[in-house]
## 1
Amino acid sequence: MSISTVSLFPTLNENLDKLDKRGKIQLLEEKHKPLFKKEGINGPPKFIPRMAYYNEGEKIISLYPSEIIGGQDIYTEFVSKEYYPEDKERKLYKWVFNADFEIEYKTSNPHPVTGDKRYMIPVDELIKVAELHENQNIIDHFDAEPSAGTDVPYADMTLRDYAAIQLKTPCSNKKWLNEIINKTK
């Protein structure tokens, strides 16, 4: 365990020190229960904390075939080998199941003892679950029927508004549009 990991979560790490691997995973999972609920998961999620590392210049996590098979999305948190959180924000990530994982992802060298290979999943493909739901809240706001005078017709969009949307920069003269752009960053 690195010194920086110890200083991030002293109380959590003291609790993790007392647990076996399964207990550590359950304790880590506990923090993410509200997000699992938002994800609509009824029952235990497929939560597999993983170490994120660089391989050939790309940041990845690796998963064994037995962990991927089953057609379920996999949730993860970045941890050390000993299952200590490595992200001070303790973000929950989701890898959306890809049925073509066997042909789309590189594999590791075989494990020296078991011969097992792992599939290398780029961190760039992982979805930050909290951000997904923040963005969904913004989208849900637009699903409601607007009352008279609360929405602007598309024909009233200015070039500046269009640029703000495309550039994801709050440079519109419409305060509400700038707020939406800021929330989605």
## 2
Amino acid sequence: MVPSTPTRRRTLLGAAGALATLAGCGASDGGGDRETPTEPPREPFDPESVPPHRRLRGANDGPLVWLSDETQTGTNEEPRRRRPTFLTSRDQVDRLRFADVRGVEAARTFLEETTFGSETIFLERVPVRRCYELQLCDVSWSATEVDTQFGRVLRDADVACEHDARDSTAWLVRIPEALDADRITSYSSGVGGSSCGERRRPPEREQPITADAVPAPNATAEGDDA
């Protein structure tokens, strides 16, 4: 759900569309109708519009970040993309546990710098093929819904990987609003097949993930089967 107040990113998008329209009018020489492009315009990506976040990545099938009182048995049978977690208090942060992966200390510092009461941490787990890197392109929310959109790019050529192998990623996103986790009834998330700067409007969502539709253990994340 899109917030009632447009984000800076969407404002820039509207301005870019207006300029494109003016450019088209100025190019007309009166010699006949020009064909209107049918391809949707590229969506300008403004990294500053994405809330602050930290990412963890690991080759294990189990969770990378979890609350100490969450059930962790049978991780091999758990869905690779689990229901998201909303951290709204320092007590929850104290109960977080981390897998032994790179970036844990940076994630802990990020959490310590969060001001609960005016900010909320949204924890989302997303699988990715080992040869690819995910980028967080967009986050939107309301009092009852949260939506995230990711881009995907190939990793550097010097990174050894197997195309069919998968990694787990965990994203800690700092939403600049105190959300009530009990009121959030649904969420959606999508992974596009290109980088954030190459995504087009509107974002494609072939298989939106909702709170009432968690994928089966063998399911793939949206856009992650290419």
